[in-house]
């Protein structure tokens, strides 16, 4: 689910003076005291998350047509935008956001500082007041509508945060969009390990990759995105730590599978065993990335889909080979690349033909 322009997203902040719920004060709150933390979080209710943010483009026929084709929805006979496109006209795209205030970032920072570092979008609600037609230019205001008390779910314990965005055309309300997330501390399994954690955690302070380029010093090297480790994928990442490429093999039908899943996609059996790949395969498909640029990656670079000798496929990087020399069918072999001081990843490089065979 995508988030609206001034709503619950990460990024720069402007225009909001720190209040009683500022991130600075949150660091001194007692994380173990749910009442104190909740009182702190409630101080953000009613504070703006964005003010008078203009949509990047007017409502337009091509976007309506593309959206309808993608969803299999008929284009309305009068040419108006389907009502459920409301959020489309508020999205900022890759260029970044304007009109943001610091209140929402400070709220999330307070939760991060208290240990509630994981996030999941739970639901959104929309209300429609009038149709949007080609040529309409939307503006929107967003505010932090509510923060729940501490709740415990199967994912973990945390707080539900709801933002409300009011979308207007010429000052007249066209619709309302509510977006709700759960900021939580992951639950633990019977063994005491988190059921879903970011590995390794780099939430506080934010790593260079998580800060806007304007806030990075020239000496900072952006880090690659951190993997998310959960009960389904933990075995794979344990293998990576031991320099092993592990996949699953169904105990019922012997079908190999990757990425790791709780059940066999061939026969449906939940029984499986971990197996180690020899790391030899061929390039099944590939793409050379030029744009958009991502922090920690130096374009152009090759992203490959490798078919391993054991019968499964994995997406990874191909190293040591110029991008214009990558070919489908090229034999490759596994190696492990340390991309920074806290993360090592399986990658591939060109291999002799006899080795891949």
Count of separate DSSP helical elements: 6
Shape: globular
| Count of β-strands | 16
Compute the average pLDDT. Answer: 83
What is the first-to-last residue Cα distance? 42 Å
State the order of secondary-structure elements, H for helix, E for strand: HHEHHEEEEEEEHEEEEEEEEH
Summarize the main sheet: 6 strands, antiparallel
Pfam families: FAS1_DH_region, OB_ChsH2_C, zf-ChsH2
Domain FAS1-like dehydratase: 80-171
InterPro entries: ChsH2_C, ChsH2_Znr, FAS1-like_DH_region, HotDog_dom_sf, NA-bd_OB-fold, Thioester_dehydratase-like
Protein name: DNA-binding protein
Please describe what this structure looks like.
This protein is mainly beta. The protein folds into two domains: 23-215, Hotdog Thioesterase (Thiol Ester Dehydrase, Chain A), CATH 3.10.129; 228-356, no CATH class. The chain contains six helices and 16 strands. The protein has helices at 23-26, 34-42, 61-71, 103-113, 234-241, 353-356; strands at residues 48-54, 118-128, 138-147, 151-152, 156-169, 172-186, 196-198, 228-230, 246-250, 256-257, 272-276, 280-289, 301-308, 313-319, 331-340, 343-350. The strands form four sheets. Strands 1, 2, 3, 4, 5 and 6 form a six-stranded antiparallel sheet that branches. Strands 12-13-14-16-15 form a five-stranded mixed β-barrel. It is globular and about 65 Å long. The two termini are 42 Å apart. Mean pLDDT is 83; it is low at 1-31 and 196-214.
């Amino acid at each position: 689910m995508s988030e609206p322009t001034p709503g619950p997203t990460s990024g720069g902040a402007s225009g909001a003076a720190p209040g009683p719920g500022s991130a600075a004060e949150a660091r001194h709150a007692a994380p173990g005291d749910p009442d104190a933390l909740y009182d702190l979080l409630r101080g953000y209710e009613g504070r703006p998350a964005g003010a008078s943010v203009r949509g990047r483009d007017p409502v337009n026929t091509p976007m309506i047509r593309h959206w309808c084709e993608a969803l299999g929805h008929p284009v309305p006979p009068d040419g108006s935008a389907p009502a459920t496109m409301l959020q489309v006209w508020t999205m900022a795209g890759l260029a970044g956001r304007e009109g943001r205030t610091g209140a929402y970032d400070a709220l999330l920072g307070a939760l991060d500082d208290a240990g509630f570092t994981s996030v999941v979008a739970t639901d959104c609600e929309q209300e429609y007041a009038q149709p949007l037609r080609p040529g309409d230019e939307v503006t929107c205001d967003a505010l932090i509508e509510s923060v729940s008390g501490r709740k415990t779910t199967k994912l973990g314990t945390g707080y539900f945060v709801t933002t409300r965005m009011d979308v207007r055309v010429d000052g007249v309300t066209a619709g309302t969009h509510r977006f709700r997330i759960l900021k939580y501390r992951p639950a633990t399994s019977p063994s005491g390990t988190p059921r879903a954690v970011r590995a390794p955690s780099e939430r506080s302070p934010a790593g260079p990759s998580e800060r806007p380029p304007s806030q990075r010093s020239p000496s900072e090297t952006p880090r690659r995105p951190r993997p998310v480790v959960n009960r389904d994928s933990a075995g794979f990442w344990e293998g990576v730590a031991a320099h092993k490429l592990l996949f699953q093999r169904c105990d019922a039908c012997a079908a190999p599978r990757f990425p790791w899943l709780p059940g066999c996609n061939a026969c449906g059996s939940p029984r499986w065993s971990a197996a180690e790949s020899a790391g030899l395969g061929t390039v099944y498909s590939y793409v050379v990335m030029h744009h958009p640029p991502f922090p920690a990656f130096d374009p152009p670079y090759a992203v490959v889909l490798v078919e391993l000798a054991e019968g499964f496929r994995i997406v990874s990087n191909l190293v040591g080979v110029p991008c214009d020399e990558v070919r489908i069918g090229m034999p490759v072999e596994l190696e492990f690349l340390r991309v920074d001081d806290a993360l090592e990843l399986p990658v591939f490089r060109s291999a002799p033909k006899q080795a891949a065979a």
